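User: I'm preparing a small set of examples for a lab meeting where we compare how different chains pack in three dimensions. I only have the primary sequence for this one, and I'd like the structure in token form so I can line it up with the others. Please keep the answer compact; I'll paste it straight into my notes.
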Amino acid sequence: MDGAVQALIAAVASFFIVSFLIGVLLLLCRRPSKPPSLAAVSPAFRPGPTLPVASATFDPSISHISMTELAIATKNFSADAIIGDGGFGFVYKAQLTSGATVAVKRLSADAFHGPREFCAEMETLGRIRHRNLARLLGYCISGPDRLLIYEFLPGGSLDHWLHQSDSAESGPGRLSWTDRVAILRGVATGLAFLHEECKPMIIHRDIKASNVLLDAELGARIADFGLARRVDSARSHVSTQVAGTMGYMAPEYREGNTAATWMGDVYSFGILMFEVATGKRPNWPIKGEDGKDVSFVKWAKGMVEAGRGWEILDPWMEKEGVRCDDVDGFLWIAHRSTDESCRKRPSMVEVVSLLNQLPCHSFKISI
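Assistant: Understood. Below is the structure token output for the 367-residue chain.
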């Protein structure tokens, strides 16, 4: 066989091989595609050998929970379902198949270490119950995803009432002096419980207005307690990592002290007291009388020391019936709680006692 014939045979063979491959590709392209599933949209929610799934519930109102149900209930964690943005992740409003409305916190990937430690932590926190703490109803994990299910509180956050709403229903003008004192009494009582009643002690480490949630009658509930790691009593009631938000953070933390203590919580609470009284954000500077910027806490404490506490009250708040002596007593508690020296600050039990001594005719307004 000469070279010309061999070349012809090779060309014909190549043609048939290429034609066959093209035909196979065309057949594959014509196969109907399957509609994308929830697992395809969020592969982290698909259980498998490398993505172990674990869940638990701590409340009889929720008998069972799954990643798939939570993804559906939050519209695959749509931005439209977000109702809060905490230091550990976004919070979504969700309605479960049982009809229950809950708040789902999707923790950031680096919020906790392994699943075993996470589950142990949540099992402990899930058993904690107090009227001034937001109830943890359950949790669910799959691979890197960690979801916490909390009771849904219709009043929203205290931050929203003080700063983010101009509506007649949930604006600063709707919070009377009585309401503000009652809310802070609730927060103080919840913190005192975490510090004194929980064994081992729990230090919150991020007390701020956005971590105070309100029920339909403006009752205060502390959120995110325990998420900054529970404190081991064998370590002298300190943890190894400081958390917090600028404006609320104790000076010893800002100066490099990395040991979180209950005294840091007291300082943050004192800042919250000043914030609730003035309606001003603590992480924004204040224009002083000399035209220069001054820190919020320095301005507030300076006005209290000058006997001008009444002048710093929230201008939106109705002041009729509010006594100057009551305001002064309230602001001096805030002043003591924000002492530069952590050892001079009162404990939260003392703060509760001092707040209870303030005259405050209790009444609640419904939303």
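A couple of notes for your slides: The CA atoms of residues 8 and 14 lie 10 Å apart. Residues 31-50, 230-240, 361-367 have pLDDT under 50 and may be disordered.

User: Perfect, thanks.
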